[in-house]
UniProtKB/TrEMBL annotation:
Swiss-Prot/TrEMBL GO biological process terms: GPI anchor biosynthetic process
CDD domains attached to this UniProt entry: GPI_EPT_3 (cd16023)
Tree of life domain: Eukaryota
Keywords from the named record: Endoplasmic reticulum, Glycoprotein, GPI-anchor biosynthesis, Membrane, Transferase, Transmembrane, Transmembrane helix
Predominant location category: endoplasmic reticulum
Species name: Aspergillus flavus
Stated name of the protein: Uncharacterized protein
Any single Pfam family the record assigns to this protein: Phosphodiest
Amino acid sequence: MWVPMKDPSIKIFNTAKRSDIREDSVSNRTPSHIKPGKVADPYKVFMPEKLLDPHRLFGGSYGLCSYRLYSFQATKIFMIDVLVHTVGLYFFAKGFLLSRRVLEKSSACSRPLLPGFPRYESPHLQSTQSGCWMPRSFDKAVVLSGKDAYQPFHNALTILHEKATQEPQNAVLFPFIADPPTTTLQRLKGLTTGTLPTFIEAGANFAGSALLEDNLVTQLQNAGKRLDSFLVADLHTVDQGVEEHLIPLINHHQDEWDVIFGHFLGVDHVGHRFGPAHPEMSKKLKDMDRVITDVVNSIDENTLLVVLGDHGMDKHGNHGGETENEVQATLWMYTQRRYFGHLLVHPQELASYLNKSAVYQIDIVPTLSLLLGIPIPFNSLGSPIKEAFLGAAGDNWGQLVRAYMLSFAQIERFHQEYSIAEENARHAEEHNHTNFLRYIPGEELDFQDQEILKTLYHELCDYQGKILQRYKSIWVQFNMAHIIEGLVILLSGAVALLLRVCAWDQCNLIPSASSRTIKMGTAAFIAIYLIHIAIVKPEKSRMSDGVIVGATMSSITLFICQFHLFGMIRVSTKSQMPTSWDIMAIALTILLSIGFASNSYTVWENQTVLTFLATFGICTILMSNRTLDRRKNMLGALLSISFMVLVRMVSLSPYCREEQLPSCVTTYHRLGNTMGWRLLIPYLIAILIPMATRIAFGSDLISQDLGVWAWFHIGMPMALCFNTVYWSLDSANRIGWLEGRHSNMLSKWLHIFFSQSTLVIAIAGSGMALTSKWTTIMNPVRYNMIITTFVLVISIWVSSPMGGGSLSILYFQILSLRKLLNHSRNYTIGPTIAAFLGTLHFFSTGHNAILSSIQWEAAYILSHDLSYPWSPLLVILNTFAGPIVAAFLIPLIITRDGNTRGMHPVAKSYAIHVLVYSVWALSAAVWASVLRRHLMLYAIFCPRFLMAGALLLIIDVIAIIISLITAVNTK
């Protein structure tokens, strides 16, 4: 639809030169060519005809503004925004999120460890038959790893503690400490390479098929070891999996394997779904106890059994690495012969186990390598576990010191190579202070003198501690040049978007650039590229980085300079001063941004957002009394009160983080695991959402369009009903109503059927409603209703019943907000409050700005196995369902009843919505960089920045989707 320039909704700004304007051309007198009795065109009265040249005003739009063209231009602006934000976040993360250089070198039997060291090496140095570097102690090994499972205080898993106390020379039990972050992939990397994780690797939890570093598995393969592995991923088939794989392999196929790796996921699934205190956890631990007992009875004296957990879990079953329970697991080693030694009298009580010195997870790598007679992986920083080399009598100091010398010689070789790779003078200078060779005696070492061996052992322990602390400090070095570049790009992007929002009402959003503007952009590119080269060391960056930074900043410069934005803003502010709603939107956004400077405000962000929304509700009550219509005043007051009541309702089921204890009590999981709530909430959702939609949009739902009618009267209610059945089956499964093998199989099939059916019905129903074949009359309100309700149904489907209830309340709040702002001409407060509502419901759906709150079970909603890319997308949708639904609901807030003018206000509102999130992301990045040495950096500030950055990109993508769909479907 084409709209003439006289439409007062389109403001025209003077972009001509001052020399083109004469004082008499803008006189307030009625022009002489207007005859008496005729109505003068206000545009021609107050503006000279020369300025009405359409090429000057709209870059060749010929005085007409197409909403289709307008939407396409808005899409281009949002695409520019997402590119700018991506580049800014990339460079900030590159300098802020810690990473380490990966050395691709590998250890080998035939390679001497260090010059001058061979006189202390074993005569078996180059022998792969009897052992590499030192004689192997075991021919075979069975390694069973699991999730969070093997805490000895569970009465259900008793064999670990019983064997360790009753047969101390056959079994040893340790607290097993993981270095955070404790995501699964990072822990498996640490358990195979022996190196420390860094924060930036935690995001790779879904893509870990390739391990490029030298690792334990590669060394076993190089030594000719035959490996077998299997995965038991289902919650109810641990026994079945063991019967089919592990026990027969040990008993009847001895010649087919040297090392078996078994990775059990059943306990992890129980932890995520039910929590560690649920009876199902005790049942699974009893299953594991029976499995381990069977393995103990099956192995021979030349086989080592290792049982370990890769991480712990908190009381809700999550694991990110923020608390002690999340980083502590258990290591248990067992052999049929008397082998393990102890420096102290072996503890006989469980309390003594808890006080026993802990073993770091990286220590298992050199221990298993030397016990199995293979080289220690090149990047390993761990030290051998002393109980595995002291001998059964506890006095074999010669073997222990030899193992430590071999391990630390490998550490020193890694140390030397890393120093060369870094090419850092300060790094090399510090290397001299930790030189390994100064710990080695100049003369031949007497391995019979235990006092000398004990002294050397303690010195080597001291050396390893220094090296480990050194690399922990090296891998927390921030690249300030990249951090500053990222912050500058984010700030420039936010400023450019702010200027664009202020001048949004002109028709042509992206006019053509003049030659002068292009020259300025080129000069900016060259200058910024040279600055990048000057401040960033060549070995720390690539040439492409400078090109990306220069191109991004020059694009922002072009974007700003090709408009006479400051002049437009000056005209805009004179014609329309900021309202009280504008001031409130700005104040709330800035206040929340300032709060990111405080760890307390960041920890209690959910309560801060709750307070801001309650304040907005009070303001709407006060504003509702300004009209003379008592009925409207009463309706506004009731809507405001209902909005505040709903805000308070979602705050009743928080997910508390450790820093909030004991002032906060987590009720989200407690209510979510209560069968009454789990069964009731999905049914209420299926009833109330269609009902509320009919009440709010009754006239728009009653139409002759088959597609629209079918979606709102059949498709959406049916999808919600199938979702209800799905979660009812899940609840029945939790309380054990479907016991038995055949019932379990039927339950699995029905789970998948109803889950996939919900998705298919939602896609088919909404797609039919949006198709022109089925829909002939499509106004903006109806069009937005279809899109937003589809997103709402999908988000409820991927969330738990408690999360779905929270999202339903969000929908009701948006409907209340729409009615409250229905007669307002302000388009700023709506998208701003939507951002706050999205943030509130991020917390109320069981999430927080910590890694451990990620609900990984959402990856299995479509199938029982991981499927790429759907599983990661489901987890993302589950995590950010609140902000995503709030963003998609913005058109319902902005599109007024009876509005047929198109999508012009919606595009501007999305720009404001993106601007709010960009300010929050910029603030989180600024304060995280300022507080980079803060004690709680990785517990509080870094996760909040990751959340802000992810949300910003997601909102950018949603703005692109809405504006693009609008451009395609606008007539």
